[in-house]
């Protein structure tokens, strides 16, 4: 009764089932790795945001590459804003997905080194985005700023192309090395997303903290794939039994028809 398993149709079905099981198990393992990565990243971000703010030069220096452990850590700096060398970062969105600019202002420390400060988002002047936008001035004189330390932006990490031939004082990526060349100064590696002091008006709009990644979704997907893998052999057995039952019924019907006397 099981010789039908040697038919072409059942051989193909069995091979497909045997391939699906390890594939689904591996997909579940991959989703579990993603869950662990996202959970670790959420814990890292949460720890950095909740840690006490430290002087920025404890974590970065000219030429320094901001590490994953240093990212989002709250830092403070004393100095003054240099609005003469202020630039804007093109094609940035706010919390409502409106397209505008990020305002990048050099912050000159007491020792002459420069810290790049992302003061927040402002709307674009118009569709052309060629003229330098009007930007509310930051506080004058020596002040203390606080912000989240961020690594230099790259095309590889962000997917944003570093276009050339842009309008004056407009850039695509925030990169301390490029700004050091432009300013001819010692620029601390990375930049900070300013959190205080808050602007007097609504603009620039300070950048919000990063949200948690949905790690629980990856965990659910992992369980789902493993349940699918467990369901494949169960489904195969159900199909085999159904096929055997149907074949037995067909044979019984045929036997009955052959043994019945012919009508007179």
UniProtKB/TrEMBL annotation:
Location of the protein in the cell: Cell membrane; Membrane
First-listed, main subcellular location of the protein, grouped into a coarse class: membrane
Nucleotide-binding keyword on record: no
The record's annotation in Pfam families points to: SURF1
Q: Which residues cross the membrane?
A: 219-239
Q: Does the keyword Transmembrane apply?
A: yes
PROSITE patterns for the chain:
SURF1
How does it sit in the bilayer? Multi-pass membrane protein
The alphabetized UniProt keywords are: Cell membrane, Membrane, Transmembrane, Transmembrane helix
Family the entry assigns: Belongs to the SURF1 family.
Q: What is this protein called?
A: SURF1-like protein
What species was this sequence derived from? Streptomyces plumbiresistens
């Amino acid at each position: 009764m099981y010789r039908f398993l040697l038919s072409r149709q059942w051989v193909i079905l069995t091979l497909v089932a045997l391939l699906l099981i390890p594939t689904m198990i591996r997909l579940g393992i991959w989703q579990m790795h993603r869950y662990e990565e996202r959970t670790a990243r959420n814990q890292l971000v949460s720890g950095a945001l909740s840690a006490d703010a430290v002087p920025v030069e404890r974590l970065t220096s000219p030429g320094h590459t901001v590490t994953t452990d240093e990212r989002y850590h709250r830092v403070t700096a004393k100095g003054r804003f240099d609005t003469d060398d202020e630039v804007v970062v093109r094609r940035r969105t706010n919390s409502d997905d409106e397209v505008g600019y990020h305002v990048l202002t050099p912050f000159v420390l007491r020792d002459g080194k420069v810290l790049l400060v992302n003061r927040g988002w402002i709307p674009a002047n118009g569709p052309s985005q060629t003229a330098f936008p009007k930007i509310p001035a930051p506080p004058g004189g020596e002040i203390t700023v606080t912000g989240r330390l961020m690594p230099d932006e790259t095309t590889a990490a962000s997917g944003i192309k570093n276009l050339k031939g842009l309008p004056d004082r407009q850039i695509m990526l925030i990169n301390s090395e490029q700004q050091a060349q432009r300013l001819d100064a010692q620029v601390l590696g990375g930049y900070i997303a300013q959190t205080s002091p808050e602007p007097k008006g609504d603009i620039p709009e300070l950048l919000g903290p990063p949200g948690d990644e949905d790690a629980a979704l990856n965990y659910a997907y992992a369980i789902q794939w493993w349940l699918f893998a467990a369901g494949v052999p169960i489904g195969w057995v159900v199909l085999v039994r159904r096929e055997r039952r149907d074949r037995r019924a067909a044979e019984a019907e045929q036997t009955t028809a052959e043994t019945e006397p012919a009508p007179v």
